[in-house]
Amino acid sequence: MQFAQQQSVLPQERQQGRRQDNFLLEFAGLQRLRTYRPRQMVLNQGDCTAHILIIVNGWAEQTIQLADGRRQIVAFGLPGDLCCSDLSSRSRVEQSIMALTSLTVAIVGKLEFRTLLTGNARLSRSFWRNQMLSLSIQRRWTAILGQMDARERVAHLLCELYLRQEKIGAAVQGACSCPLTQTQVAEACGLTQVHTNRVIQDLRRRGLIELRTKRLVIPSLKEMMAVAQFDGSYLDLGDPEPTLAETRASQPA
Amino acid sequence: MQFAQQQSVLPQERQQGRRQDNFLLEFAGLQRLRTYRPRQMVLNQGDCTAHILIIVNGWAEQTIQLADGRRQIVAFGLPGDLCCSDLSSRSRVEQSIMALTSLTVAIVGKLEFRTLLTGNARLSRSFWRNQMLSLSIQRRWTAILGQMDARERVAHLLCELYLRQEKIGAAVQGACSCPLTQTQVAEACGLTQVHTNRVIQDLRRRGLIELRTKRLVIPSLKEMMAVAQFDGSYLDLGDPEPTLAETRASQPA
DNA sequence: GGTTCGGCCTAACGCAGGTGAATGTCCGAA
DNA sequence: TTCGGACATTCACCTGCGTTAGGCCGAACC
């Protein structure tokens, strides 16, 4: 099995200003690119692939589907994020990946990427930092789904999406894009679409969010974070700028 | 903040036969070891540490605590597993780590470990494989907590713990150890202790499990896996034995 | 202009699982 | 031999959320 059929190979316009070092994104911009239309599948659960993906533009969702058909969104991919990042040469992907918006990804052969990593400390550092971040987010989501009620879950998701966008310079003044349908929010939060709707309306009534036409506004991030018991430290790992002495050794180079 | 106080530095007896290559465990056996008593804290959420931990013997739990006190177990550490594996030199740990049994861990400075990784392809491969496995398990748990009901969750947890032990040669003939209290099962599954008890009794009544005095028996793993909709592929990543050509390049070495 | 389809919203009803509390059992320490 | 603490068990009661089933709107397409 391979990637879903190709749409275009033209390098896309570059991302706008990023607030954090994300060398991965810079790197990706120079690779072979592929674009997908909204709702187009990128990879299916169970496929094998010899490539890793780096999202350059747009959003993707990663879902796990159970035998009986129930689906859970386990991760959202934003620009700079990795997909199927297991570097074993041909590994089975454990989740389906679908474009949520128009999506541009860089496709890099795993073998090739591994050799690049050995030669490029900065890339290597970016890559492993990214992996750690994924794990950290995933752990947090385990806690959220295990302990929080519906309102907290939805609020937490929206906070996270806002802050992740802020990090890549895609959020300003409490506003960011949010190309998710309520059904997708539900699938990410482990709720039904009906109940998600109730919760969103409740958040709106309390003046905590505005959410319409793919746009999310959070008037008071502080209040919102209180509702969600949001503690953003899980999004900011380790040393953003390693010391000079470390630049060589830093992540396994 | 540092590791909880030390108990003993004697190298412990080695693990018994392992079914899978786990070089990490071999490696760990040669490092500085530390042991903890059951219920002893190893690290607290929010601590900074310049060390990674490799579990040599015993079980640990990793929990995330919310601001209001609710706790969720986000991972169980078995022999060969890593804790606080973020290699950034001094990173904050996002979860508390506590010994569930008498526990022996290897403590390795991150800086030191990084240099070891660069020089040792086999260690490096083991390490990154382990990281990928953690992520894979965590993703799966996101799906479990988001989609499954109580019985499925508990059954899935028990299947996973059984198979993970089988992998390291700690399960035979459908029997393995399970040093968890019902409260801990509950904290891992996002349920209350009361309801977890109901579910366990139900599983017992159906003859799916025997569970008493820290011992778990699964008479028919097949039936159990059916109840849990268990698909073990998430526990077996990538190439167990990379080709010769790859041994050098394989994981970022 | 009608039809279809995706997305949002609403309402009535029922149940899985939470809550709170009491009781039982085992076991190690004094 | 008794005491206390950790765990398991059971009960009565309640509620957050799922389920089912609809209605409304706008966009895309004939």
Automatic annotation (TrEMBL), chains A, B:
GO terms for biological process: regulation of DNA-templated transcription. Gene3D superfamilies: Jelly Rolls (2.60.120.10), Winged helix-like DNA-binding domain superfamily/Winged helix DNA-binding domain (1.10.10.10). Residues 148-222 form the HTH crp-type domain. SUPFAM superfamilies: cAMP-binding domain-like, Winged helix' DNA-binding domain. SMART domains: cNMP, HTH_CRP. It holds the Pfam family cNMP_binding. One of its GO terms (molecular function) is DNA binding. Keywords: DNA-binding, Transcription, Transcription regulation. This is HTH crp-type domain-containing protein.
